[in-house]
Write a structure and sequence with these properties.
The structure is a homodimer. Chain A has about 650 residues and is of the alpha+beta class. Chain A has helices at about 20-40, 55-60, 75-90, 95-110, 120-125, 140-155, 160-175, 195-205, 205-220, 225-235, 265-285, 285-300, 335-350, 355-370, 390-395, 415-425, 560-565, and strands spanning about 10, 15, 385, 430-435, 435-440, 445-450, 455-460, 470-475, 480-485, 495-500, 505-510, 510-520, 525-530, 530-535, 545-550, 555-560, 570, 580-585, 590-600, 610-615, 620-630, 640, 645. Chain A has three domains: about 10-430, Alpha/alpha barrel (Glycosyltransferase); about 430-530, Sandwich (Immunoglobulin-like), CATH 2.60.40.1180; about 530-645, no CATH class. Chain A is globular, with a radius of gyration of 25 Å. The interface between A and B is large, with 62 and 63 residues.
């Protein structure tokens, strides 16, 4: 870890997304999802599962009578919504939305207890029980999410009511939990507070906040195990008692610095890894950084789907073991993919290396946005790579896999999480340090960079994900320094022109470094080759052996029944098949479709038995149509498959 | 259905198995398993799960104090053991074993209530509750198994104490359950009583017994649904309330004659289908026969593994849907395979057709005997076709799959079921009618046939499953009639010689018909070609596409890690690979091993990422060794796979 490598994301206000692809996602989120979710949080969406979220805060604030409704982590839905609103207001001012958010914040603050405590479940059900089940009751998780909202809202609006409330809550937690005698030696059962506290620390520079984040990480998994003692003391039920997971479900089976594998619940794991990276960077802790690197490699080189999905198993929504990546029983929770984006950017903040950005791009363009329907009204929790609708219905092992996106979930973690990410996608495209700005994602945007203390306005235009052409031009300002442009891992060949001429440029860690004095009118033109690529998985991935996945640029493609008929497993993509790249502006909101001449094994089986000597069925030529994976399940229910036999 | 086609099995005493293969299984069962299981039933096996079975009977008989232990169907373990003993005594007299069985029967009879009722669970827990949960409490299941034991023991020893007790119990049930007003309009939650009553009827010719069996079948699934009413009336819990199964789990979602698919719990389904065939044959009921045919086709042409295993899913230990035959998450319960053997023989009794015998042979030589270790001390419940031990441990969806056989189960249905089948295997090899005897299985045995009323002793010698040579010679008696010899479905070419000369023989339904006057010294010699065959599955079987299974004669072969190294999925068997057939007398109790030159994809993956453009790893030649599937998991824990990529 080298401090000179460190970068930080641009403030969201310095990134105005103009991109056709992501801009359209942002508009959907702003126009539809945020208002829809507000209605959902208020239980005003007919046919959707009840939320009870706002109602819980009203009861906690003494404004109405009633019982707490929903999950112990119901508060976090409002937190994620508020965080999303903060980003939305930055992207596009909206006084009415801001008023609604202010009122919601006023409600949250009204529920806060005199000592700073702020969790509706315990405020309603009895404060004497608070902090008695850190393992499963998500108090610190809700705290973390609301803290993220507070920071984001403060950064977006300058209003600090929620921030001050959350600082008081952080103080309250700090008085109750920590290494000192008399305090609980605990940590979150579901991580996120670690990241959140680091965001708070970046504003307050109050050592207390850093210390608490670091404590949560270092205390996790230490013997004697806090969760075990807590359970004994308070008679809590241990759901994973007889499971192979046990405390690994919570990444607490051993001290964090000893962990070599991304394990347990995938969302928790991804949030923990993100927090580890944050603390490692802030403290310069080499050992913790090595832990982050080890977990990164475990998660992304041995336990990640080609779509960037993580979590192979429905059971525990969790990681299983190396190279165990079944396509049809996968969990691949949208939230876990989002968590992996968080982790990737934090690794980039420590060291800008294309590997991290490659994963970030893979996850964003595939396993994250597959979570939302194109019209922004329906959501996937689970993001499978192979679906047979009949199996989702009749095979218990696949019933968690839905062949169509759902309206809203009683456990509504994914939709608002997706919204906050999409609204703030600009925060993932560039990280910078004093003398250099690293462009990680080619998202069209107007950016305000700062190089060696001098602002530089640049306009980035990108054909991604459909075309490899990218241009970057300086529109205002003058500054000397390096603009580093990522060479995507999927790109074998590219051309680079600066002001009409091939420049001198070095490449480091997968970035083209353009170090010069930048002036208005300076233009960088890049053209990344974006061929169709047949990707294979590491042969140790049992489920993908003998198969290929079709990709082009950042996008993973898939076969859908709609285009290719039933029984997708009968299809084969011979090695020599050539692809045609076809723009389909009217299809699925405008996509590029890939077609190839494949083969289909006949269903007409000459034998009258289920098994017969090989050679009873023929293969005949059959056109194959591949669509981008993220866009699947937008044309009714049908089969889908990412991996195709070769 | 044509009455002239009907056949019946030979009495077990008319079949003395001399076969090297099955004789050895019988010896293991007689020498080891029956004594071992008696110890287990008496809770005298250190380290094995407690049974409580005998103890329950002692308590029910008032000979000791205590509570009922174990499952509601614990009585059936003793029933299956007694049935196995009956067959064992026929195979090989054993006065001491017979004395033990007599004492056990005396105990069972002592537990019987004055009105004939006989189930330890309710005798101990309160008779007022009896027949209040036919759906789940297995009373009629235990009745059925004990009745089968009673019939078998009577046939083996001539002793009728248990038979008379069970006739009284049948009368008791008949007084309580039936179509008449005031009776419960119920039927077994777990079938078996149907078959058992038909065996009883064959002895008693008491219409009451036939009527009850037929009622159980015809009443099943009729509206208003008995189980639903029973549940409401007695407040029983309905475990499948929110499952897609609902009453189909019990094959009771619709009237039996309307059923088109083998569905629900596979053992239950197989036992029901067997009972349907029994009643159809006995009553000449065409509609019921068509139901049996329809269910046969569903079970064996669309829902059966190549090993003869049935039940694709752990959930409900059940059938799922057509062509859904996953190899690694399969259930394939040993008991269900046994049930399929029962069904196949009953279909043969209605019409001798090689298709039924082919399935019976497939199941017996593969999915049934895979359930027991070669030393007869350990058992599989679940019989997978693909195993990766790490996945059995770490993937919840595969935790029901064990990579090694277990000693004894708390729910000990499979081991004693296997024992009763192996002890009585002679009852599956021949069925006969007045003028004809059909040899279905080529198991070496001394047989007493009866042709047109005249006994004929024949000696059958067979090289199965290792060689295709079979000879049949008349050793005593003289009789005119047809000896029909099955041409196995896997055999493309054979030679037939009678008394040294090719005879005139017609073929019907897959049987060679040899109609003549048989005399001592007459000898039939058959030589069935037994080539190695690469079998494919119907292309609609998603999991087997692009793969082949290696078979030879009746045996399905598999790859084991022990011979082929880890990561069996990396192996491929090219279409042109040639097989070598090698006898290995010292391996696995003496087997024929198949070897071929295959290919192994290298685990050395040139890319440093999990996914990379195809072509990063090479295939190199690699010898493949296939062993018979039934013998897998006898050399320690390791991977196993039946299907290999082509």
């Amino acid at each position: 870890m080298n401090k000179n490598d460190f970068t930080h994301p641009l403030p969201l206000r310095s990134v105005r997304v103009t991109d056709g692809f992501w801009g359209s996602y942002q508009r959907r989120v702003l126009d539809k999802v945020i208002p829809y979710q507000w209605e959902a949080l208020n239980d005003r969406v007919p046919g959707a599962d009840k939320s009870g979220c706002i109602r819980n805060f009203e009861i906690a604030a003494g404004r109405r009578q009633g019982e707490h409704y929903g999950w112990v982590f119901q508060d976090s839905d409002l937190a994620k919504w508020l965080e999303a609103v903060a980003y939305a207001l930055t992207v596009r001012p909206d006084p009415e939305l801001e008023r609604t958010a202010d009122e919601a914040i006023e409600l949250v603050c009204a529920a806060q207890q005199p000592d700073g405590y702020l969790n509706t479940y315990y405020i309603i059900n009895g404060l004497e029980k608070r902090f008695t089940n850190l393992q499963d009751h998500h108090e610190l998780y809700c705290f973390g999410h609301m803290l993220e909202a507070a920071v984001a809202y403060y950064q977006a609006t300058g209003k600090d009511a929620l921030l001050q409330a959350m600082i008081r809550y952080a103080d309250c937690i700090d008085r109750c939990i920590g290494p000192e005698e008399g305090k609980l030696h605990g940590y979150p059962g579901h991580e996120v507070a670690e990241m959140a506290l680091m965001r708070l620390y970046a504003i307050t520079h109050d050592e207390k906040h850093l210390r608490l984040a670091k404590y949560f990480i270092d205390q996790r998994g230490q013997a004697p195990l806090y969760f075990e003692e807590e359970g004994r003391r308070n008679g809590n039920r241990f759901y994973w008692e007889n499971s192979p997971f046990r405390y690994n479900y919570y990444q607490a089976g051993m001290p964090v610095r000893k962990q070599k594998e991304a394990m347990g619940h995938a969302v928790r794991a991804a949030y923990l890894m993100s927090g580890i990276a944050d603390v490692a960077r802030e403290t310069g802790d080499e050992e913790l950084y090595r832990t982050a690197l080890t977990l990164w490699e475990s998660a992304t080189r041995r336990r990640m789907y080609i779509t960037g999905a993580i979590g192979s198993s429905h059971y525990g929504e969790a990681f299983t073991f190396d190279y165990d990546l079944p396509n049809d029983t996968v969990y691949g929770e949208t939230c876990a993919a989002i968590g992996l984006v968080f982790f990737a950017r934090r690794m980039l903040e420590i060291r800008p290396k294309a590997e991290y950005a490659d994963v970030m791009e893979r996850v964003l363009y595939n396993g994250v946005i597959s979570g939302m329907s194109l019209d922004g009204t329906r959501f996937f929790y689970v993001n499978p790579l192979e679906v047979v609708p009949e199996a989702c219905e009749k095979d218990e092992g696949k019933r968690h896999v839905k062949p169509e996106r759902q309206k809203w979930f009683g456990c509504a973690c994914c939709p608002p999480n997706l919204v906050r990410l999409l609204a703030s996608v600009g925060q993932y495209m560039v990280t910078a340090r004093d003398g250099a700005a690293y462009i990680h994602l080619y998202i069209g945007a107007d950016l305000v960079l700062e190089l060696n203390g001098r602002p530089l306005k640049v306009s980035l235009r990108s054909g991604f994900p459909w075309q490899g052409k990218v241009s970057l031009s300086v529109t205002d300002g003058q500054a000397g320094g390096c603009i580093a442009l990522r060479i995507p891992g999927w790109c074998g060949r590219y051309t680079l022109v600066v002001n009409g001429r091939p420049p001198e440029a070095s490449v480091k860690d997968g970035y083209l470094l353009l170090d010069r004095t930048w002036q208005p009118g300076d233009t960088v033109e890049l053209d990344f080759d974006m061929p169709v690529t047949r990707m294979a998985a590491d042969p140790r991935v049992r489920e993908d052996i003998g198969k290929v996945a079709v990709t082009r640029g950042p996008l993973v493609y898939c076969l859908e029944e709609k285009d290719n008929g039933k029984n997708l497993h009968l299809l084969r993509l011979p090695r020599e098949a050539e692809f045609e790249i076809r723009e389909a502006p009217d299809l699925l909101g405008g996509v590029t479709v890939l077609t190839a001449e494949g083969l289909r094994r006949s269903e007409n089986w000459a034998a009258d038995a289920l098994y017969a000597p090989a050679g009873q069925s023929e293969e005949t030529p059959c056109p194959l149509t591949f669509i981008p994976y993220y866009a699947w399940a937008n044309r009714g229910i049908g089969e889908m498959s990412v991996w195709t036999r070769e």
